Amino acid sequence: MTGPADIPAETQVRRVLDAYLAECHDNGKRPSVLALAGKLGMSNTTFRRHFPQHAKEVSEARSRPEHPDEADAQPSPYDVLAARNARLRRVNRMLTGNLKLAAAQIQRLGMENARLREALETSSNVSRIDQPARAGKR
Q1: H or E element in which residue 103 lies
Q2: Is residue 91's pLDDT more than 50?
Q3: Cα–Cα distance measured from residue 42 to residue 2, given in angstroms and rounded to the nearest whole number
Q4: Band of the pLDDT at 74, cuts 50, 70, 90?
Q5: Which helix (H) or strand (E) holds 108?
Q6: pLDDT digit string (tens) for 35-51?
Q7: Are 33 and 59 in contact (CB under 8 A)?
Q8: What does the pLDDT read at residue 136?
Q9: Are the C-beta atoms of 36 and 17 separated by less than 8 Å?
Q10: Contact 16, 40 (CB under 8 A)
Q11: Closest to 99 measured CA to CA, from 111, 87, 91, 88
Q12: HSE of 112, CA atoms in CB hemisphere, 13 A
């Protein structure tokens, strides 16, 4: 387990946030909380926990259009399709992870079941009917 993260001071976070937002605006990039947290040497979750207002500010800056006339523009069919595909990929990734986890749990439960059955048979001195008797046991 890792130790506690070093939490930067509020003034340092504000300074890095302002510089990051200006950089994103100059480069035409959309800011992200993850990138800002990385600049501060923090995980996304830790940053959001300790600086929720700054995370909200980045999220609002991300959702603001670069040009005012873009606010009224409808997304193109390509943009809609790309967003839908991205969402489907995220859901597929999540479901694949859940499937792998479920298969591992089933495997673990099967092994645990076999171990418990063997322990029960040993403790109660009962043999299973569907298996041939072990040599030396009667």
Answers
A1: helix 77-124
A2: yes
A3: 13
A4: confident
A5: helix 77-124
A6: 999 999 898 899 999 99
A7: yes
A8: 53
A9: yes
A10: yes
A11: 91
A12: 6
Q: Does pLDDT of 85 surpass 50?
A: yes
Query: How far apart (Å, rounded) are the C-alpha atoms in residues 90 and 39?
Result: 25
State the amino acid at position 67 in one-letter form. H
Inter-axis angle of helices 52-63 and 10-27, nearest 10: 10
Instruction: Specify the length of the chain in residues.
Output: 138
pLDDT at residue 6 in the model: 78
- pLDDT tier, 3 (very low <50, low <70, confident <90, very high otherwise): low
Domain boundaries, the chain: 8-73, 74-124
Chain position carrying tokens 């939490």: 7
Degrees, nearest 5: CA angle 101-85-93: 10
Question: What does the alpha-carbon distance between residue 17 and residue 37 come to, in Å, rounded to a whole number?
Answer: 9
Burial of 58 (0-12, 13-18, 19+ CB in 10 A): buried
Query: Token pair of 131, please?
Result: 């298996």
